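Re: the request from the purification team.
They wanted to know what the chain is likely to look like in 3D before they choose a buffer screen. I agreed to run a prediction and write the result into the notebook, where they can find it.
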Amino acid sequence: MKKIALLITTLLLPVVALAQVVQVKGVGTVSYVGKASPEIKGKAYVKAQMAAIERYFAESGEADSENFDGVKSKVEADIDNYLLGTAILNEEDLTNFSKYTVAVRVDLNVTNLKRVIRGASTVAKTHGGAKSQLVYLFVGREADTVRSFDDRVFKRVDASASGTKKNFSVQVESGGSTTRKSDNVTYKILPMSNYTTAITSVFSQGGFIVVDPAYAIGDKEFKTVTKDFSSGNDLAPATMRSVVGTLRGQQVPYLVLATLDVDAPSQDMATGLPRVAVTVTARVLDLTNQFPREVASVPAVQYFGMGQTNTDATVKGLKDASLAAAREVVSRLNAADIR
């Protein structure tokens, strides 16, 4: 019998491991007439669970929150499918105000929640027509050289004198200014080939047809893109015009540009392991009009990766940051009804 129980536990472990679990707290309050019946308490309980789920998506970003609003009623109707557990932290029956309040901590099944959001997005795109093509350029980089400039100080002294040689007075006025010049940073471009399959999968699951940039953009353009991002945070105007012209010629309507800046490794205070911060910025350009226009953007967001070595931490940070960036781009495109 013990062997059977052990076998069942072993079989269940992979299922639990596949589910992404996040703990979130929520509070639900319901007004009542007379007294707080079991039905009233049940409504407050579900309301608290939904508040926890809404809080998770609100903290995930504006786009995720808007996407959740589209499936909110569906989640509430089958809420147990999206929770792995609920613990009551506090409950209070305010009889003087005829209100019952309960606070809970829930274990969210984030995998199922994101699946229902993706499903709703896919259905919308199916009814709305053909899915759009896009090309993405995710550039990983780390600071190679940093040239700092000393402050330039300008001082001026004005003097005037009056009187005779024996008796005279002097008035002095002094002033000036300090000019500061920002650091000149050059970057070393990091390979992203190990992450392209996962990034492509995120965009594909979001309902987009991904065109491999290796097929859509020429070698010369790739070199200029790399050169531009090695010395700045955006493409030079000539490079942008060249890339846009090439993609338009192939009828690709959307271009996703993202930079992933890797900081120098540091030590995690809690574990002592190497930790690397990766800062992500991204934007999406619509190429279908006469002039490209930005239809979605991801402001600078920082992610962290840890590992046994600095290299492991960098790889983990780049992977997590690139996947998170792709998901956020898809969420913002869906929220803007970009198809």
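For the purification team: The domain at 19-116 is CATH 3.10.129.140 (Thiol Ester Dehydrase; Chain A).
Please add any questions underneath this entry.
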